Amino acid sequence: MSDTYNPDEVEALEPEVLTLPLDAWHRERGGRMVEFAGYWMPVQYEGILAEHLWTRDSAGLFDVSHMGQLHLSGVGVEAALEAVLPIDLRTLKPHGPRYSMLLDEEGGILDDLMVTRWDDGFYLVVNGATKWDDIAHLREHLPDEVTLSHMDESALLALQGPKAAEALERLAPGVSALTFMKGGQFKLAGVDAWISRSGYTGEDGFEISIPAEAAQQVADLICQQPEVKPIGLGARDSLRLEAGLPLYGHDLSPEHSPIDADLLFAVNKRRRSEGGFIGAERVLRDLAEGTAQVRVGLSLDGRQAAREGAEVYAGGEKVGVLTSGGFSPSLQRPIAMAYVDRAQAAVGTALEIDVRGKRLPATVTAMPFVPHRYHR
Predict the structure, then answer these.
(1) Strand residue runs (E) in 136-292
(2) 15 band by pLDDT with thresholds 50, 70 and 90
(3) Per the confidence metrics, is the pTM higher than 0.85?
(4) So where are the chain's domains?
């Protein structure tokens, strides 16, 4: 899922900013709190660079309780959900999360999300900044027979990194047997927890849904493991960028369809031929005819990073715009994502990025920039 902090966003510190179950816990540990998606959240503890590298080498605990956890159930829920999402639920096995997205009538991306088949319905995790709009969209388009419950009394944690399984197995025996994109119900130090082997950093790891009242107890126990430190939103953004994972509101928006966003895998094979979901007309047209632009990765020469909004050029011709960018702590060089004209999208194409009037050389690069290390 793509709901990560972007350091270029303007932080509007308004009185109605809400707090999450672990708000005091973050502050006690020195978390520097910022407003994000309507909540106070920690952007960092000891520093984004150190936290990023710690997660790549060991295990980091992220509080992602701002995200929306939804439960859908009732008569005809599967068919109703297929009418809204471009997903093939017939092939979705129990307890196996799958990436999908909400589209508008024109095929533009309203949000990206995760869908899991539970024994009593479907569990969705949507982005925090869009969850209220997502809930309204779903309620508008789902029939009355389908019940949508917002699990607002649940917290969500993400334990990410190559030592995540080693640390979590001590607290939730059996969890290390899960493989990537599989989940199940576990007892985590006596607390009922839904745990899936998934995340948004490119690393092995887990997402953990627990009652909000148990969040502090669980976070304490996880961070008592020698492999684990609390990690802020800043490192979550740099990790997902290295992993080539798009961020909603930046790399994904209603202006883009799953096709130019290079997310064809999220429109499952049967749905590409049958359609029958909101926005299908544009998606199938884009698939058949191609799109003018496509999302690509860019590696920049030198040390100077380029940020969202910077224009991309091929010679004197503007061919695209950056949607994400920053300095890669793992690679020690700047990287970015952009939408560029298809004629300039081939890996190895030399381009330039305009940063305050200075042209920075860049090369179209295959993503992910840092290889994924999912446990399959």
Answers:
(1) 146-150, 154-160, 183-188, 191-196, 205-211, 228-230
(2) low
(3) yes
(4) 23-65+153-242, 292-376
